[in-house]
Amino acid sequence: MRTSTIRRASLALTATAALGAAAMTGFAATSQATKPPATRTVTAPAGEKLRYSATRLKAPAGRVTLKMINRDDIAHNIAVRGKKLAKPRIGRIVGMGKISKVTATLPAGTYTYYCSVFGHESSGMRGTLTVKA
Ligand SMILES: [Cu+2]
Fold it and tell me: Residues with Cβ within 5 Å of ion ligand 1?
């Protein structure tokens, strides 16, 4: 009786230790990293309008991907900046039919997404991304 109680206690300890080890080796961090980012998509419409299809986007805090489908016959990209980003994230500049994208881990806050091709943002190719916790 006494021996079996000790054995059971020892098994419980082993299981607890195993769970603790899993947590400490970053199991939680791994599952968060593999969670797909929230994706928001805009297009650059044909006709050299120097606008995106949306000037406002919303996303939950965490990993966010911004995607721009270029339907225009001039090259564009998508980039994102904000006070809570140490530096802007800038997607590849792409031609018609191609996709430019950026992924960043964004805390709650307000960000600007924009085309970094010279003169495009100042012509209106930008929008506001609101990230909420
Ligand atoms: Cu552009």
Answer: 76, 115, 117, 120, 125
